[in-house]
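Progress note, sequence design subtask.
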């Protein structure tokens, strides 16, 4: 008998849903975009319930939900970039199927590590760069989630004292300078594909992108200095454009990390994507 599971990614501007078999093969998927400034919890879970109702004939074993924030069991404690605070999943998702909720960066890290990299590394960081920035950390072969489950919230590491205001209430947070949202704001362009296309033809966009990559390298260097990982993986929507920026990013990171003289760090983009 084939076990069927559903994976749900509640992102900063979309819900992505995949039906997956026990070999990890995606049988069906759906991505629905929304405006995070106007979306409500009811709207988000209506998308999920509609999908579940459309697939009532499928014998689902479990549902896994990744959220950009902090959660405990089936409860979303807090998300910075979405209106999901103190939300009990079973109050919204009407099903008897077991549901597991976790931080989206941790979910991405576990998947990438288990499927792609586990046999090669023990100390590992995956950074998701999208609407915001998050990270998952594998230390000595185990996911590190911290005391309260909020380890890896590097998007809210301050890189500019008294800098730009952030949704979290602080100023100068990493994601205000190095998220995909920040890049779109800085270039006044809505699509990543267009930004990278224009960067090869427009000096102004090229300069903005160059400054953005410098900002990205600052936060990445801090992660490496703190955790001394063997590999740094770039995930999120930025990852698909790795050939456009990875070489420059690695050069900047290697010139700024504390142990640059004896450290051969592997920096790459994630293989598992939407």
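Output:
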């Amino acid at each position: 008998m084939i076990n069927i599971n559903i994976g749900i990614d509640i992102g900063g501007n979309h819900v992505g849903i995949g039906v997956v078999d026990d070999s990890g093969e995606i049988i069906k998927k759906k991505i629905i975009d929304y405006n995070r400034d106007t979306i409500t919890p009811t709207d988000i879970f209506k998308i999920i319930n509609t999908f579940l109702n459309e697939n009532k004939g499928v014998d689902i074993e479990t549902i896994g939900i990744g959220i950009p924030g902090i959660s405990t069991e089936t409860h979303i404690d807090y998300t910075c970039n979405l209106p999901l605070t103190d939300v009990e999943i079973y109050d919204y998702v009407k099903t008897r199927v077991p549901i597991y909720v976790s931080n989206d960066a941790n979910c991405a890290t576990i998947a990438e590590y288990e499927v792609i990299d586990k046999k090669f590394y023990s100390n590992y960081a995956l950074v998701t760069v999208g609407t915001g920035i998050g990270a998952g950390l594998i230390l000595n072969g185990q996911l590190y989630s911290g005391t309260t489950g909020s380890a890896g919230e590097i998007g809210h590491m301050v890189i500019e004292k008294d800098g730009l205001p952030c949704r979290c209430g602080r100023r100068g947070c990493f994601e205000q300078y190095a998220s995909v949202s920040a890049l779109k704001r800085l270039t006044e362009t809505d699509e990543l594909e267009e930004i990278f296309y224009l960067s090869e033809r427009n000096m102004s966009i090229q300069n903005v992108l160059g400054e953005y990559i410098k900002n990205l390298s600052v936060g990445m260097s801090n992660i490496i200095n703190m955790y001394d990982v063997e590999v740094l993986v770039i995930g999120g929507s930025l990852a698909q454009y790795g050939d456009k920026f990875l070489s420059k990013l690695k050069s900047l990171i290697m010139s700024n990390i504390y142990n640059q003289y004896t450290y051969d760090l592997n920096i790459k983009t994630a293989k598992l994507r939407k």
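The CA atoms of residues 69 and 79 lie 4 Å apart. Work on this subtask will continue into the next period as scheduled.
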